[in-house]
Amino acid sequence: MRIVSWNVNGIRAVQRKGLWEPFLADIEPDIICLQEIKADQSQVDVPLEGYHEIWHSAEKKGYSGTAIFSRVEPVSISTGLPARLAKKHAFDEDAFGDPNTEGRVITAEFEDFYLVTVYTPNAKSDLSRLELRHQRWDPAFLAHLKALKKKKPVAVCGDLNVAHTEDDLAHPKPNAGKAGFTDEEREGIQAFLDAGFVDSFRMFTEGNGHYTWWSNFSKARERNVGWRIDYFLVSDDLAPRIAAAEIHAHVMGSDHCPVTIDLRSS
Fold it and tell me: What pTM value is reported for the model?
């Protein structure tokens, strides 16, 4: 089974560029996880014959949002983080609004694993949302994953909006302390690993030069001056089933590129 995750930075834009069908033909996914769709289902007519569709759009039009399209029908589906976690971590106190209304999480249960796709809140360039990210969102999201992990293996994918180590961005020194590479954000992803989740890409590939997002300025993508901020993390009991984990930097249509895992049968 091949699962792909892609921050499309607007699914309608990908369609207008004529790049949706080439993406499907190139990747040949069994399950598609999208972030930052910036639309609701009524606004989009994507060719998805044979896929079950799950949409979770933000209440704010044209903003954020996630989707999962799967050839295998999920056993169950939930959207957002559980209300008890949102309440416990005081999501409604964020100055920008409740992140649980922004279409950021879909959890799909399959027969032998859970699949979670996430579009993690950005700390913002002035770090005005770093407190939400570090003190509320990351702990709440990890609590959600831990609860799932007690039931069956878990794969979580999406735009985590953080480069974990210096190998995960082209210019670590000048970006230290900036959004996406603060100590707090890096601690957040480390907490996932400490809780028994594995960075699937690093199971197969070491070193730098492997990125999933590039600025639209200064020909950053052409020069491969990027960041690896899109991930597949898998619970340690699912890791032995990962046959491959790849970054598809050649796939165009967004400032992010798709990432995939190939999952062996249990």
Answer: 0.97
Residues marked as catalytic: 119, 159
Q: Tell me the pLDDT band of 46, cut-offs 50, 70 and 90.
A: confident
Per-residue pLDDT tens digits for 131-141 = 999 999 999 99
Residue entry with tokens 């960041």? 227
Domain limits of the chain? 2-263
Task: Measure the CA–CA gap between 70 and 78, rounded to whole angstroms.
Answer: 15
Q: Which amino acid, residue 80?
A: G
* Beta pairing, strands 2-7 & 31-35: parallel
User: By the 8 A CB rule, do 244 and 262 touch?
Assistant: yes
Region 5-10: mean pLDDT is 98
Domain 2-263 sits in CATH 1.25.40.10: no
Residue 207, judged by CB atoms within 10 A of its CB (0-12, 13-18, 19+), counts as: exposed
